[in-house]
Amino acid sequence: MKYHALLCTAAAIAFVSGAGGAAAAEGDPAAGKNKKAMCAGCHGIAGYKTAFPEVYSVPKLGGQHAAYIVKALQAYKSGGRRHPTMRAIASGLTDQDMADLAAYYATATPRTANQ
Predict the structure, then answer these.
(1) Which residues make Cβ contacts (< 8 Å) with residue 62, sequence separation at least 6?
(2) Higher-confidence position of 96 and 114
(3) Residues 29-45: pLDDT tens digits?
(4) Which of 39, 41, 58, 75 has a CA between 20 and 30 Å from the CA of residue 115?
(5) Confidence at 113, pLDDT banded by 50, 70, 90
(6) Is 62 in contact with 111 (CB distance < 8 Å)?
(7) What is 26-107's CATH number, 2.60.40.10, 1.10.760.10, 3.40.50.200, 3.10.20.600?
């Protein structure tokens, strides 16, 4: 768990310092809503815990910063983050898909783990 927190902190620092590379695509929340089916299977279930590759609570995405979601998806796609299910899902996403999903979740109401 400490590794995950360290990775998140490093990603946030890289983003804030401008180490993100090319300009991000502009996201469309309405398009993201139509693309969220794969996300909702885990991130939309109250109190859901995954059992592979280890047991942990799946984070809620509603209210998260769009830039953070895009960077996380890019890291899963490139292999920088190593969750096998997320890597498989992110590998099929275009930059526009990532931006749309991020825009949708950034405008969604934040939820606690039990909602």
Answers:
(1) 105, 108, 109, 110, 111
(2) 96
(3) 999 999 999 999 899 88
(4) 75
(5) low
(6) yes
(7) 1.10.760.10
* DSSP state at residue 22: S
Cα–Cα distance, 70 to 45 (Å, whole number): 21
Banded model confidence at residue 111, pLDDT cuts 50, 70, 90: low
Q: Pairing relation of β-strands 56-57 and 49-50? A: antiparallel
- Tokens at 102, concatenated: 């991020």
| DSSP label at residue 114 | T
**Residue 91 structure tokens:** 């590998």
Angle at 58 between CA 23 and CA 98, to 5 degrees: 20
Three-state secondary structure call for residue 80: coil
| pTM assigned to the model | 0.72
Structure tokens at 61: 């995405």
Domain coordinates in residue numbering, the chain: 26-107
